[in-house]
Every structure is written in structure tokens, then in C-alpha cells.
Design brief:
By secondary structure, the chain is mostly helical. Helix content is 60%, strand content 0%. It has nine helices and no strands.
Length: 217
């Protein structure tokens, strides 16, 4: 191992590949992803430019790995999701929606910065995609609440989950399509089950639409 590579790894037991991913992820968080170069990543990581190509096929692979790490970092600060049967269904659903909105608001700047690099986004989508756990847990939560009798036995929970996921995806998709999105809420931990969340009329309206529908009663 060269002295420069050794210096880059003095801070812990990470492999050099892990160190490079962590460095690129930090630069994405601090400076954004637009214009992020191999040279900038290498200098920040304390290695020669060519070292990156010993661990990644190309720049796009490294940035896709860093993007996954960024999404996981945002997820890690959002707190726990509610369990079925805890508190009210309305409070639980509100917590899931708040979590999803905060997650997508947190990752929006990075995705927007990569809008001009479709190869990176394709690499990201081609591997394990963080954020799916929230989507899968949302659907599982709605199914469990239906099984517990706290939702109607014929509740169309799959459609409800798709609607919620779509609302949370909207800011990211609008940014990638260069369409000005609605102002997203600032990233914040999801409220605990049964606790009041932020005063957000849009979030409350979405929860009410999911729980009570749109038809006349």
C-alpha cells in the first residue's frame, strides 16, 4: 500500500473502496452532485486520481454507490416508523407520510444535481435501491391495520400506498424533468406513533383523502 493510500485509511477499518464511497457521499451532501469530478473525490479522499479505477469500473459506478449511501444516510436520521395497532390509524399513517416526504425532500438536491447524468441514475436504479423499505413497510402497515379491523375489510390498501408514494416522489421527479416542484417540507424526523406532527395542511389533506376517500357519503 502506498503512503498516500495508507494515510487515507488511518481513520478506521474501512476498505479503500468504502472510503471512496463515503468521501463521494459526503461531497454530495456538502457541495451537491452537479459537477462532482473524479479529481475532486480523489483529492478529498487523499489518493491519486487513478486509484478510483482500481475499485470502480468508472465514475458512474462510484457516484451510483455514493448516491445509495446518501439515501441511506438521510433514512438513518428519520427515526422509527409506527407499528400496526399502535396509536390511531390516522396518526400512524401521518407518520408514514411525514417520513416519506422528509426522505424525498432530503434526497431531492442530490437527485436534481444528477439530472444531467442519466448513466449514474441508471446505475443507481440497477442495484439495490434504498428507500424501498419505507414503501414496503407502508403497504405492510396498511394491510396489517386492515387485518386488525381498524380499516374497512375491503380497503384498497395497494392503491392507497401507490398514491402516497406518488405524492412523495413528485418533488424528485419534477426536479429530474426540470419542472419546478412544489416547495418540499424540510427534512425532519417522523413523529412517534400517536404524536402530533408538523403543522402541514397538505399532509393532513392527503391522510384524510386516503382514510375517508373522495366520494359523497
Amino acid at each position: 500500500m502506498s503512503p498516500r493510500k495508507a494515510a487515507a485509511l488511518r481513520d478506521g477499518g474501512r476498505s479503500l473502496r468504502e472510503h471512496l464511497i463515503a468521501t463521494a457521499e459526503r461531497l454530495m451532501a456538502e457541495r451537491g452532485a452537479a459537477g462532482l469530478t473524479v479529481r475532486a473525490i480523489a483529492r478529498e479522499a487523499g489518493v491519486a486520481d487513478g486509484v478510483l479505477y482500481n475499485h470502480f469500473a468508472d465514475k458512474e459506478e462510484l457516484l451510483a454507490c455514493a448516491l445509495r449511501a446518501r439515501v441511506r444516510a438521510v433514512e438513518s436520521g428519520l427515526g422509527d416508523l409506527p407499528e400496526p395497532g399502535a396509536g390511531t390509524v390516522e396518526a400512524g399513517l401521518r407518520a408514514f407520510v411525514a417520513y416519506g416526504m422528509a426522505l424525498h425532500a432530503g434526497i431531492l438536491p442530490v437527485f436534481a444535481g444528477l439530472a444531467g447524468q442519466p448513466a449514474v441514475l441508471a446505475r443507481f436504479a440497477g442495484g439495490p435501491v434504498p428507500g424501498l423499505d419505507w414503501r414496503d413497510r407502508l403497504l405492510a402497515y396498511l394491510k396489517a391495520e386492515r387485518d386488525l379491523g381498524r380499516l374497512a375489510p375491503d380497503a384498497r390498501v395497494e392503491a392507497a400506498a401507490r398514491m402516497i408514494v406518488g405524492v412523495c416522489h413528485e418533488p424528485v421527479m419534477s426536479a429530474l424533468a426540470s419542472v419546478p416542484p412544489p416547495d418540499p417540507p424540510a427534512p425532519a424526523p417522523a413523529p412517534a406513533p400517536g404524536a402530533a406532527g408538523p403543522d402541514d395542511a397538505g399532509l393532513d389533506d392527503l391522510v384524510a383523502a386516503v382514510l375517508h376517500g373522495l366520494g359523497r357519503r
